[in-house]
Every structure is written in structure tokens, then in C-alpha cells.
Amino acid sequence: MQWTSAASTGSNLDALLDQVTTAVRADLGEEPLDLLFVFLAAELAGVADDALRTLHDTLRPVTLVGCTAGGVIGGHREFEARPALSVLAGRMPGAGLHAFHLREGDLPDPDAPPSARPG
Questions:
Q1: Are 19 and 62 in contact (CB under 8 A)?
Q2: Which of 74, 86, 89 is nearest to 26 (CA)?
Q3: Predicted TM-score of the model (pTM)
Q4: Which of 81, 88, 91 is nearest to 66 (CA)?
Q5: DSSP secondary structure, the chain, as one string
Q6: 39 burial level (CB within 10 Å; 0-12, 13-18, 19+)
Q7: What is the distance of C-alpha 35 from the center of its chain?
Q8: pLDDT by position in tens, the chain (length 119)
Q9: Phi/psi at 61 (5° precision)
């Protein structure tokens, strides 16, 4: 298995994407990835679709998982309350992966007692 992470901050999406893509390729090369986790700061939520599409087209992961967050961590750094993008990229030869879409409304109330949660 091979793994790397990269992160960048700033308001220019193209620059953020270029920085993390360049870092991932420097560590893992040009071959498609098996898995790519993408974390976008909430300040970039409006461009999330563009970011995911570009990363998918550029790094060609078999499986891509992404979300927005109040803060992101990657590349040995943490960014809060500012535009930032972080990725965790991996190659796992022979691994079978299956991504699915989960919305907040699909989750049980975290404050509900265990007896009230679906089994």
C-alpha cells in the first residue's frame, strides 16, 4: 500500500487543486489511485462539485469520497475558519472498495438513546 496527504489554503480553487494534485503525483506518480478522500473547508462548499470533478478527472481515483468540514487537516497542517482543501490519496492493490452517498438526514440523532436508534 502507498499513501500520501496534501493540503493547501487560499481562495483560488484552481491554485488549491494544482497544489494538492502536484503533491499527490510527486509522492505516488501518475497512475490512477484506488482511493481519494477529499476534505473541503465549509468556505469552499459552493465550489465542491467543481473541485471533486477536477480531482476525479486529474487523479483518476477508482473510488472518491468527499465532504465539507469546519476545518481540514492534511500534509501535516491544520486549517480552520478559512478556505482550504485537503486530500488523502492511496493505492491498495487488490482491495475492493464501494462508496455510497450519506446525507445528514440519514443519520440517527446523536443525542438519542441507543434504544431509539434504528438497528
A1: no
A2: 89
A3: 0.84
A4: 88
A5: -EEEEEEEESS-HHHHHHHHHHHHHHHH-SSPPSEEEEEEEGGGGGGHHHHHHHHHHHH--SEEEEEEESEEEETTEEEESS-EEEEEEEE-TT---------GGGSPPTTS-GGGS--
A6: buried
A7: 10
A8: 999 999 999 999 999 999 999 999 999 999 999 999 999 999 999 999 999 999 999 999 999 999 999 999 987 889 999 999 999 999 999 898 888 887 777 777 778 887 776 55
A9: -70, 145
* Residue in 91, 58, 88 with CA at minimum distance from that of residue 72: 88
Q: What was the pLDDT predicted at 31?
A: 92
Strands 2-9 and 84-91, bridge-based pairing: antiparallel
Which grid cell is 84? 482550504
Residue (of 25, 37, 34) closest to 94 by Cα position: 34
What would the pLDDT profile of 66-100 be if each residue is shown by its tens digit?
999 999 998 788 999 999 999 999 999 989 888 88
Cα angle 75, 79, 84 (rounded to 5 degrees) comes to 80
